Amino acid sequence: MTENTLVHPQYIAGTWTLDPMHSKLEFSLKHLMISKVRGTFDVVDATVVTAENPADSTVEATIDVSSVNTGQADRDNHLRTSDFFKVDEFPTMTFRSTKISNDGDDFTIEGELTLRGVTKPVTLTGEFGGVIDAQGQTKAGLTASTTINRLDFGVNWNAAIEAGGMTLGDKVAITLDLQFALQQ
User: For the chain, N or C: smaller number of CB within 10 Å?
Assistant: First the structure.
């Protein structure tokens, strides 16, 4: 369900697919209680259907969890194991919207995130970047973010630090910078 306080002046009904060459899904979480580890998922597929009636619009995304990339191969391989993403059993993470609302360029997307077979509600907040016709194609851009607790999805691995505390934080910040192309 979508609730709009005002239909955006650049609103176009149609099916929009993710342009992966101009999009990024990043995450970060505390490491050793003093800094952050950052990474991306490099294989993401997403579709936004903006309906004639904005209340009927939807967002669906599938993330290939094996495409995790922190820039460190050993860490990435560990993230693919049962300690973290359990890629052999759960190769994808999915998101499905349940409600979309906007206030000018600002928007909120409520939905369900499924990771490791666990589905939890998630709220993304973001900003609509606009629509442009470029290179013979209509493109739209947006940024969004949310924070999840990894423990809610069964991602429980951690290790104690000699000086006290744990190796990893529980909260994971997720940031999306996305560009979509209108399908003709």
Answer: C
**Alpha-carbon Rg for the chain in angstroms:** 18
Instruction: Classify the phi-psi angles of 20: left when phi > 0, otherwise alpha if psi is within -120 to 50, otherwise beta.
Output: alpha
Token match 């739209």: residue? 140
pTM: 0.89
Segments in 23-94 forming alpha helices (H): 73-79
Got the DSSP string for 101-152? EEETTEEEEEEEEEETTEEEEEEEEEEEEEEEEETTEEEEEEEEEEEEEGGG
Q: What is the pLDDT of residues 128-179, one digit of tens each?
A: 998 999 888 999 999 999 999 999 999 998 888 888 888 889 999 999 999 9
Q: In whole angstroms, what is the distance from residue 87 CA to residue 103 CA?
A: 38
- Count of residues in the chain: 184
Q: Are strands 14-18 and 118-134 parallel, antiparallel or unpaired?
A: unpaired
CB atoms within 10 A of CB 180: 23
What pairing do the DSSP bridges indicate for beta strands 2-4 and 92-103? parallel
* φ, ψ at 86 (rounded to 5°): 55, 50
Q: What is the pLDDT of residues 42-93, one digit of tens each?
A: 999 999 998 887 778 899 999 999 999 999 999 999 999 999 999 999 999 9
